[in-house]
Amino acid sequence: MSDDEATARRETGLRFSTDATPSGQGGFEAYHDLYATVADAARLDGAFAVAVTAQRLDTLILFDRRLQGVAHVRSPRRVIRNGFDHFTAQLVLDGALAVDTPEGGRTVGPGEIALIDMSRPMETRAGRARVLTLSVPRAAIEATVTEPGRLHGAVLPQDRSRLLARFLASLRDDLHLYGPGDRQRLARATADLLGLALAGHAPEGADAVQMAAAAACRRRARQYIDAHPAATPEAVAAGIGVSRSVLYRAFAPSGGVARYIRARRLVRLRALLAQPDETARIADLAYRCGFTSESDCSRAFRAAHGVAPREYRRLSREERDAPARQSFAGWWNDLR
């Protein structure tokens, strides 16, 4: 992608509405395909309708969603398949949003914000709701909260959410007035306000020190893994100057460092397969992404995506005529 294309993607809003698709099951199928990058959409009893608008704030994405009769499910298999590592803050403006995580379930009402760790399983359900969803890179959360994993499924009450909620509602209405430079400043302001709202979730004392050390270890490890896709857990530990036991403990809450390494390799491979100008052989791409062999790569890719890499490349080429789906997928992929 050129610099001009990347800038344009950050400035342009994206829209999807079932009002613009065939009614009934056809509308749901279009939305299911649109959202397939992130979660499995499922119909609930009663009428179904969805409208989504997305806007970029530098590294953040703000979604305005009107949801009726729909659930979104991220199963453990889906979590492994996606390789997402960001957070979402879901502000309910109207109606109610049911949020289920392994830690329990909550119903989130108007003015409250649900926090979702996208590296972990979850399910949301909306009979009828309007939700502003802010997608935030993990690094922005870790800058404020030393153990972000504790936030998964947490709900910020109205008194802690009010300032951020008002700011997000204003962004939704006025963001189109601002250019790239201003949007970077607005992104920083948004992250600061989110950090302020999350301040009450920070641990204290010795726990805070230990969690801060683990978060710093994960940040360094992720940077090393992205720069050295063929690295083993042992190489990562040596590369960032920690023992293997320290590295393993740091990644234990998210399924282990080996799982993370494989997920990042799959993310890189999937991105290469989707590029229209990438014509290298699958074997060459597999080695480039850190796999030891084409067969190991194909097994991992098929387990994660249900199709072989070659088939995924073919399907990606066939789907390039679906601009809304591809644009949303591109934005979500930027958050990995």
UniProtKB/TrEMBL annotation:
Does the UniProt entry include the keyword Transcription regulation?
A: yes
Is Transcription tagged as a keyword?
yes
Question: What SUPFAM superfamilies does the annotation carry?
Answer: Homeodomain-like (SSF46689)
Pfam families recorded: HTH_18
Q: Which organism is it from?
A: Methylobacterium nonmethylotrophicum
Specify residue ranges for compositional bias: Basic and acidic residues: 1-13
* Region of interest (Disordered), residue spans: 1-21
Q: Where is the HTH araC/xylS-type domain?
A: 219-315
Listed name of the protein: Helix-turn-helix domain-containing protein
* Molecular functions (GO terms): DNA-binding transcription factor activity; sequence-specific DNA binding
Q: Which InterPro entries match?
A: AraC_XylS_family_regulators, Homeodomain-like_sf, HTH_AraC
Q: Which UniProt keywords apply?
A: DNA-binding, Transcription, Transcription regulation
Where, if anywhere, are coiled coils annotated? Answer: none
